[in-house]
Amino acid sequence: MRTAPTILHLDMDAFFASVEQASKPSLRGKAVIVGGLGPRGVVATCSYEARVFGVHSAMPMAQARRLAPNAAYLVPRFGLYRSISDQVMRLLRALSPLVEPLSLDEAFVDLEAGGAAWDEESALLAGVRLRTDIRAVTGLTGSVGLAASKMLAKIASEQAKPDGLVLIEPGTERALLGPMPVRTLPGVGPATGDHLRRAGITTVEEIAEAGEDELVRLLGKAHGHALYAMALARDDRPVVAERETKSVSVEDTYDVDIHDRIRVALEVQRLADRCVRRLRGAGLSGRTIVLKVRRYDFSTLTRSETLRGPTDDQAVVREAAARLLDSVDTTGGVRLLGVGVSGLADYTQEDLFAQAVGERPEGPAEEEAPESADGATRPVERRWPAGHDVLHTEHGHGWVQGSGLGRVTVRFETPDSVPGRVRTFRTDDPALEPADPLPLVARRPDEAADAEGQDRSSA
Ligand SMILES: [Mg+2]
Hints:
The protein is of the alpha+beta class.
């Protein structure tokens, strides 16, 4: 194990809820709950003001409504969260090539590998600077943990919450861990916790005292060994930049070789779309786009391109796949094509994500108009998800506070305005239309040009 606290764990504070509060001035300082609002919905994130009522992530939404009936209940806006996550991850990648995202708002960084820190003092400095930079770029707060291992860096950031920094000095780990509940250790869920409690083990120190043999007897070989090592603060797990083994890909084999170059390009586009649907369905995004081509003579080529940040954007994947195809000679015919995305960031809130996606109205490009019995298409009824942005021709930018019974209530405010006024419209009011979220931090013109350049090169 290393001897300097150069592993950093960043965890943004109440991320989704904080984004909503930053973008909606009237919700600052209020209880905000973001999650699936359907009958089986669960809380994805809630603001600290909502936690006071006992609301927490993964709680059924119905229970949250009983505990905090007056909170603001909002449907997640993953596109916005992801774009802010990209900004944060970019700051982390500037510190080190070894950045391991755990979710949209959480990541490990190996500061030593990037030369950003080598001892306690430099690590502390890097952590302090990072928090300042995150605040300047996103307007949000994140908590930082610094330690000599991943386990302790994560424990440190938990202790730092909200809006703080904790550094665990090497050598003090065991004393710190000892009195903590067993659930503090990674891999100890409710079931293992119960199991240990029945054996009279409730703290980390008691795990260490029980000894390795007892742990193995209680929990089995793999789990027992691992837990005993963790209790002694032994954790050598490296920060892993990308999970190369993980990828999502789709391919098609053709009965008859395809010769027509335009047809090949169309097939690649179709495969890219299918791949993105799979990716999104799993709540994933990836950085490396891969094209696979098997030619008439069974020679197989793969070409790949790595973007600056993860994407699940259909247009981005399509374009990358098309560029890759440009570099492949297909004269003579093609018998198999495949498109994949690897270098995936997998999000711990995957289930919440998938659920919320199911409830989210899909964009018009992805949704086919429903067909009635006679095959004619019906107009799609307009939906106004709570919390989503709208634009009114007269009143400007706002967000949906609620809708029902043919009415939609909109609060007109923007991230840098004062708390705005509320107005109610008919759901089919032609003056009202869905809008894109506004940036949380207004950019100066020179910065805007800069960031655009970055976005372009990453796409
Ligand atoms: Mg967080």
